[in-house]
Amino acid sequence: MNFRSDNTAGASEKVLAALIAANGGAQAAYGADELTKRVERAFCELFEREVAAFLVVSGTAANSLALSCVTPPWGAILCHDESHVVRDECGAPEFFSGGARLIGLPGIGCKLAPETVATHLARLPEGSVHSSQPAALSVTQATEAGTIYSLQELAALAEIAHARSLAVHMDGARFANALVMLGCTPAEMSWKSGVDVLSFGATKNGCLAAEAVIFFDKEMSRDLPFRRKRSGHTISKGRLIAAQMLAYLEDGHWLDLARRANKAAERLEHVLLSVPGVRIGWKRQANEVFALIPHAVHERLRAADAVYHPWSPEWLPPTAKPRPGETLYRFVTSFRTSFSEIEALGAAGQAEPSGARRVKIRRR
Amino acid sequence: MNFRSDNTAGASEKVLAALIAANGGAQAAYGADELTKRVERAFCELFEREVAAFLVVSGTAANSLALSCVTPPWGAILCHDESHVVRDECGAPEFFSGGARLIGLPGIGCKLAPETVATHLARLPEGSVHSSQPAALSVTQATEAGTIYSLQELAALAEIAHARSLAVHMDGARFANALVMLGCTPAEMSWKSGVDVLSFGATKNGCLAAEAVIFFDKEMSRDLPFRRKRSGHTISKGRLIAAQMLAYLEDGHWLDLARRANKAAERLEHVLLSVPGVRIGWKRQANEVFALIPHAVHERLRAADAVYHPWSPEWLPPTAKPRPGETLYRFVTSFRTSFSEIEALGAAGQAEPSGARRVKIRRR
Amino acid sequence: MNFRSDNTAGASEKVLAALIAANGGAQAAYGADELTKRVERAFCELFEREVAAFLVVSGTAANSLALSCVTPPWGAILCHDESHVVRDECGAPEFFSGGARLIGLPGIGCKLAPETVATHLARLPEGSVHSSQPAALSVTQATEAGTIYSLQELAALAEIAHARSLAVHMDGARFANALVMLGCTPAEMSWKSGVDVLSFGATKNGCLAAEAVIFFDKEMSRDLPFRRKRSGHTISKGRLIAAQMLAYLEDGHWLDLARRANKAAERLEHVLLSVPGVRIGWKRQANEVFALIPHAVHERLRAADAVYHPWSPEWLPPTAKPRPGETLYRFVTSFRTSFSEIEALGAAGQAEPSGARRVKIRRR
Amino acid sequence: MNFRSDNTAGASEKVLAALIAANGGAQAAYGADELTKRVERAFCELFEREVAAFLVVSGTAANSLALSCVTPPWGAILCHDESHVVRDECGAPEFFSGGARLIGLPGIGCKLAPETVATHLARLPEGSVHSSQPAALSVTQATEAGTIYSLQELAALAEIAHARSLAVHMDGARFANALVMLGCTPAEMSWKSGVDVLSFGATKNGCLAAEAVIFFDKEMSRDLPFRRKRSGHTISKGRLIAAQMLAYLEDGHWLDLARRANKAAERLEHVLLSVPGVRIGWKRQANEVFALIPHAVHERLRAADAVYHPWSPEWLPPTAKPRPGETLYRFVTSFRTSFSEIEALGAAGQAEPSGARRVKIRRR
């Protein structure tokens, strides 16, 4: 019962098969191969316009490369205070950009409100040489809290950003999970809502290691090939990354995988809420469930070998703040999560009838 | 007939099988998994001592991360002028180190002579705040010319470096090919010869994307986990890199692959030299053949769809400088290169009997 | 009536005279001169211990060089959200450190409370490769609000920092103004209170352009000479910086200048408070007065050509938040500020008797 | 008898007087003052066109800021192998540019020949992501060997650079000395010869600490204000730098100072050559004399307290290579060098009549 992250699964069967198929023969190295060209075309089709697409092997690389193309070293990048770029990348955006600054802003459910961004921007004097210069707004879709911006919310944020000439970056590590929830097109959830550059995640949702940086304005991507090479992310056997991505995109495979993960999370939320004492932190939207769990329930889950992470309660809505004895935990599902695992989790969470504990211990 | 690079092949069957096997189940992300721990132990055994080993997906990342741990931003890294770190990484060592300087030194056959290093070091005043501070010596084994340093040569270079407190880095993108040629142990060709940190290449010799940075002094590696994460090279599904490396190292598989590639190059050298007019640039030692090829022969090879790269004649020995009508070309073999491809190349290079050209054109 | 900054004055007569005297003859360049050596000794005496002292020409350089010696590129520097290093240096600490992160913390009167630092540190997991690593705490004395940490407060902050192995940096752009207010020794307000490295300001208080970075642990300063040279701050005619600093320190000249500035501010506070409607933002402690000024008063002051800056009310105590019609302004005095200027400001602020306005206009 | 450098003198009387005059009153800080504006206009007049001029306090800052505006982090800067930017700035250009690479090229007399630049450029593939991208050519006028490019030579170099879209930077630490020798206008020796950005030196020739970065294309300078601030080079009491530069430029003062220094060097060359056994390394053109001095003569000069630097013979013309017993030394004159010092040097160099040595020793 591993609900730690969607990173704990491997690749989907289809993606793995494509990798195996691509392994034979000789192909040009460093992304000059046929499969890489096909991926580039696939992204143009997917987004219904010309895009510049670049494959890399990690979300951190995708985010940092994307941001480094839209901010000077003295630039400031506005984002949510809990976002991956601020909290979980060991300063990668600073490294890739040559020292730009990340400004973490508050927001319930890890979502940025347009007024929060507007207020903060108003405090940063335009063009004053003493200040870092606002250069980009980075939003995460789905967010670190598993919440999702509506298309209207995205557009409102982008409008504020663009009015001050900030580029809009979307960290789409869970782009697919958000997309199937919103039920819109990739174009609608990106450039049609004002996104300038997208980190298109695929690793969490079924690839081994494959992400793409997608620029909707090719001019903006001019430096990327140099930045990618210079950071060691121009993989020599590039076709093996391309093969994964092609299979991932083909015939809506990526959307199927995301739907599976979301459905598992939906069931997980239901099952968790059926355990007495468990409350929800944020309403589930994608493939993550955040639950406030009483200590005794947590003990039972752990005893049953369930694994999942505690989470910061900082951005919970006021009504959902942890009460004494409760802790906020994150449960993540992936395309691989089975319903039987979920049911087992639910069963383990229920108060044990007498004797049950003995049985469990024996099982181990 | 692709002799462009050992990067054009995919993974070996064994490596691919291991990857497939590791794909199932759930495993901790970001290198906290079991397979990664096993790789670390495997490297300790391989090198007959405690080492700190870190997996990455590209040789550029391995080299730059290694160098960034042994040079301050104001440091200078001495290396051969033709080395990969200077010529082929778009300034990655400068990026990772925060602006250190690469100093390319001359040397026949892309090998550094101890006196060249000593002379250059003598020109760099010690401790003067006006100068970049010599911090590391980087040698490539096998070199970009496919030549190999003997253990004595390595030790002599390391002695000079260590006398000025420089760290010794080895770019071992073709470590295996050099090792099987020298017939010594990994320990002998690295730390026993004075190497402090090694880029242990596996991608060119049978992995999809797997390299390791090996520190023989753990203290030297203290910063590496942060530098790796910060550069986007801490792969989330890290077990899939580890699985490749484990299979690569297991039962001497990596040495078998290298022997196969070297043997193919040996045959290729023989076959090329049997073509009238073809001369050798540097004596083949590993899996690369550098040949001076008359224009007419080159035309015939190209017409037969053979692919290979022209190469700079700068570091040829005086006796092997290209004569009018000759060009220096590089041919690389891999574990996948078949003897029939080699024979076909040889046949294509031979002067055609009348009528042959017509036949070939028809074939296309 | 210029109350914009203590940067608007030139040098004191004594400092200027010393500069003139040092101008003749030939002296070794780049800080190898006699005067520079004398400054180094003077700082050892001043701080009653061995210190490593390095002269530079700007506070931004002093702060950034100091911080870059105590944080790795993936380090985090905790400081007040309003501090100069965060707000007014265009990302210089990020630049000099190779991309470290500044974390601005809240605090009334621009002062950090120990518990604020402790709480934030507790949120940053120790040693996790995903997070920036807390490396330094930077405090400003006197603060941007002109407030002053007591020795006990400094020691409490340093204790928390040192417990997590953070270095303590003090931005002492107004070190002298704070010192004469506290009436303690330089040693007490620095290393005896736990400060590891100090930006010792002199420009605002009587020099043309002279600041010093003072390390109380020489080992910590090992890289500074290279960092200083590499950033263009190793001035060729270094003796002319040294001459300023020597005169500044000699016979307590620096303390006299600071006392003069503080006394002017004391008077200014009194005069401003005597204007009906004016309230104080923070209690004056050094040479800065922050006043909440009604619009009509402000209009009269501006009409009389008084210059001063509006200031962010963010860190005002709850009891002093601006009421409708009030704005927070900063008034800074220097050693040059004359009492007659202050009285003129007070007079201008008073409600005008009929006819007064006409007179003023005529004067212009 | 100090011939070590033109950095050993202080400021000229006129420059010092201007500094003293500017010291009074209150002025806007950080370069927003009146004097700074006047300097900007003065440079426009001097160069007979619109320029963007930025004051800094060191030549290293001027060079590095200039170069950082014309090269991306993955750029390469071509320059002479002996140039200050490569040899004497501890990697400052790498630091300011975020890791660009300096490529030192050979050339007799520290001058670059057009064909050397052209040949090297031809070796750097255009647009290949694997290579650093040629971005700038940096020439030094007068060079480190005191030699001077003719206008034709400058134009020829610039033509080659511009053909590959490289920006042309001139390190003019001794711009004045070169200018009075060539007898041309500042415009002719800069933008009319193809220079895009100039480090205009004034410190060595009569200022305390004042240099300017001059852009002939304002667009190119767009980032400079941020880069300057961020590197700690936006001096708070900026008017005191401006005052120096204004006095320096006024009424041709700077040219008078340079003529004086050059004339002293002319005399020095004559005097040195009159000492038996002394030979010239490079023909003197500006204010530096490079002489091959027999050991015995050197001993006599040192005994007489003459100070001057040994110099690398690497770029001497073949005909002037040091013979056994000779060493190459550099003698630099400044506007302050007196003819009596020069005569004393000459006298000291002459073989001593018997008894002379005793007298000298007594003198000490």
Model description:
Four copies of one chain form a homotetramer. In chain A, helix 8 (175-182) crosses helix 11. The longest helix of chain A is centred in the last third of the chain and has 21 residues, at 253-273. In chain A, the strands form two sheets. Chain A has a seven-stranded mixed β-sheet with strand order 1-7-6-5-4-2-3, with helices on both faces. The model of chain A is unreliable at 354-364 (pLDDT under 50). The first copy, chain A, contains 14 helices and eleven strands. Chain A folds into two domains: 13-251, 3-Layer(aba) Sandwich (Aspartate Aminotransferase, domain 2); 254-363, Aspartate Aminotransferase, domain 1 (Alpha-Beta Complex). Chain A is 39% helix and 16% strand. Chains in contact: A-B, A-C, A-D, B-C, B-D, C-D. The interface between A and D is medium-sized, with 16 and 16 residues.
Neighbour order of strands in the largest sheet of chain A: 1-7-6-5-4-2-3
Helix content of chain A: 25-40%
Largest beta sheet of chain A, briefly?
Answer: 7 strands, mixed
User: What's the multimeric state?
Assistant: homotetramer
Mean pLDDT of chain A: 94
What's the CATH superfamily of the largest domain in chain A, by name? Answer: Type I PLP-dependent aspartate aminotransferase-like (Major domain)
Number of helices of chain A: 14
> What is the number of E strands of chain A?
11
Question: Tell me, what's the shape of chain A?
Answer: globular
- The CATH C-level name of the largest domain in chain A is Alpha Beta
Level-2 CATH architecture of the largest domain in chain A = 3-Layer(aba) Sandwich
Pair with the biggest interface: A-B, 53 and 53 residues
Overall tally of domains of chain A: 2
Taking all Cα atoms into account, the compactness measure Rg of chain A is: 21 Å
- Termini gap of chain A: 14 Å
Could you say what the CATH topology of the largest domain in chain A is called? Aspartate Aminotransferase, domain 2
Please indicate the percent range of residues of chain A in DSSP E strands (runs of 2 or more).
Answer: 15-25%
Poorly predicted segments of chain A: 354-364
Query: By helix and strand content of chain A, what is the structural category?
Result: alpha/beta
Pattern of helices and strands of chain A:
HHEHEHHEHEHEHEEHHHEEHEEHH
